[in-house]
From TrEMBL:
<comment type="similarity">
    <text>Belongs to the cytochrome ubiquinol oxidase subunit 2 family.</text>
</comment>
<keyword id="KW-0472">Membrane</keyword>
<feature type="transmembrane region" description="Helical">
    <location>
        <begin position="247"/>
        <end position="266"/>
    </location>
</feature>
<dbReference type="InterPro" id="IPR003317">
    <property type="entry name" value="Cyt-d_oxidase_su2"/>
</dbReference>
<keyword id="KW-0812">Transmembrane</keyword>
<feature type="transmembrane region" description="Helical">
    <location>
        <begin position="6"/>
        <end position="29"/>
    </location>
</feature>
<dbReference type="GO" id="GO:0005886">
    <property type="term" value="C:plasma membrane"/>
</dbReference>
<feature type="transmembrane region" description="Helical">
    <location>
        <begin position="50"/>
        <end position="69"/>
    </location>
</feature>
<feature type="transmembrane region" description="Helical">
    <location>
        <begin position="112"/>
        <end position="136"/>
    </location>
</feature>
<feature type="transmembrane region" description="Helical">
    <location>
        <begin position="191"/>
        <end position="213"/>
    </location>
</feature>
<protein>
    <submittedName>
        <fullName>Cytochrome bd oxidase subunit II</fullName>
    </submittedName>
</protein>
<dbReference type="GO" id="GO:0016682">
    <property type="term" value="F:oxidoreductase activity, acting on diphenols and related substances as donors, oxygen as acceptor"/>
</dbReference>
<feature type="transmembrane region" description="Helical">
    <location>
        <begin position="286"/>
        <end position="305"/>
    </location>
</feature>
<dbReference type="GO" id="GO:0009055">
    <property type="term" value="F:electron transfer activity"/>
</dbReference>
<keyword id="KW-1133">Transmembrane helix</keyword>
<keyword id="KW-1003">Cell membrane</keyword>
<feature type="transmembrane region" description="Helical">
    <location>
        <begin position="219"/>
        <end position="240"/>
    </location>
</feature>
Amino acid sequence: MAAQWYMITALFPAAYMALDGFVTGSALLHGRLGPGERARRATMTSFGPFFLAGEVWLVVTAAALLAVFPPMESSIFKSQFPILVVLVAAWLARDGAIWLRSRIEAAWWRRWWDRTLMLSGAGLAAATGLLFGNLLTGQADHSVAQPYLAWYAVPWAFAVVLLTALHGAAFQAARLPLDLAGRPMELVRRWAGPAAAAYVSVVLLGVATQAPMRTDGMAIWSIALQFAGMSALLMAQAVVGRRPRAALLLTGVPLTGLVLLTGLRLSPLAQASLAGENSLTLVQDMLTFALPAVLLAQGALWWFFMRRMNDRSVVFF
């Protein structure tokens, strides 16, 4: 029973990393995908239909952990409180920049929010990397006594920033008009190799130095997931010019792989944290009706909007 609920709950952070990751990556690259106001507005318009639908999975993740695994949620919250504060602050700053940038036409106003958008995107990606890196070291289950920030979380912060930027570039390559799509395609080709190397290096570093990543088959899973992530990034590098939407799917693989790896690390804690039967029945009833509706709405959103922008595209922000 606990394993089934855990697999369902794990889908939510994986969806967040894949579906909101390209929004954060696009924020990171804002202003670097072409000259002038047109390129900046196009960058924001490209993710406009998707960004609320992507970040909702972060809220769903927190709610699901609280409802299904309350002791584990409490342990994560207590052990990672400073990082969670930074993550939420960066998230709010990113969303504020998206909403406010185009409200006033003054150049100084837009420059301020351009910088805020880039910095908050970097901060959100880095905080996410720190959070997952900390959880991989065993902080949430207190199997390892260490301060709020484990040294192994720092390489993950850099890796997640790079992977998120790459994911954003792949999304922009698929959505921007052809005259603007060349720059993000070039970034995917240029960064995919270094991103794959960083991903492999950080995972292997964890296997070599972190005892929790060598227990209960974690080493085998770590190597398998780092191979899958590396292969996906190299494939994205090869196909981005011909099939940018396929490249977008591929660049999301290492980000969702990080969620899976962290989930495997926390599975013993989840086994001991399952909520009572009455609570699970209530959650099951809610998911039975809500989850299909959400998935249908998100599928329709992608069906209607996941195509290259043109002069008839709706302008967001």
